[in-house]
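In response to reviewer comment 3 from the previous cycle, which asked for concrete evidence that the modeling workflow produces usable outputs, we include below a single protein chain processed end to end. The sequence was submitted unchanged, and the resulting structure tokens are shown without manual editing.
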Amino acid sequence: MTPPLILIVEDEAPQAEMLRYNLEKAGFRIQLAADGEAALQRIDLEIPDLALVDWMMPERSGIEVCRILRARPETAKLPIIMLTARGEEGDRVLGLEAGADDFLTKPVNDIALFARVRSLIRLKIMMDELRLRETTSSNFGVSDAETLDVDISGGRILVVEDREIYARNINQALEGQHTVIMATDGDSATAAAQSESVDLIIISLSLQGTDGLRLCSHLRSMEESRQVPILILVDDIPDQIELLVKGLDLGVNDYLIRPVDQNELMA
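The workflow returned the following structure tokens.
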């Protein structure tokens, strides 16, 4: 099987080469573009599986490139991660509104890079397979499925967090757009995953009476939650970062480091 192709759009050569080295070492194929115009020309020749696009570039900004790609039918579903040195919430929102799927802040953390890239590529592969299946079924006249371009608001999210202030902050960020189901330990989380038909599970690795990683592994083994995406919350301390790496190996899809930015959580 051909490894996924990642296009890195970055005008700073050292940063581009570092990203290339790390991603090639992880088994991905890499193409480089030094500016937005060069990126669009490369994509005209071969559409990648994912694009890492710098925010600030000559010729065309990352925001402009993102908008152009989203407007083209052939790249409308291309996963895009924005690279930015900016930290303002308004800038992150602008990037997401332009069509970016996610963002990474420079200097890029390797763990964050691999987690975001692998998660989005897994999602793209799954959606490509579903679209192919839908097209094949339609050709045989047996498909009555709705389009895959669905509204993702209104999800059912299971949040496993036993610290009240953190639980309240997450609930406040998600409520209004999603249904939030709260659990404070492994037993209540397992029961909810079995009975509530959830679309996403958010698990704190700082649970007081529950091993968060063991809970992730258990939920991955259950029929009801085997395919449900899992997002873990970790504190920015060495022990938790080690747990994060183990969590990604267990099949956790993504993570956030506290303090959690609400825009990043929503993304």
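The chain has a mean pLDDT of 87. We consider this sufficient to address the reviewer's concern, and the full set will be provided in the supplementary archive.
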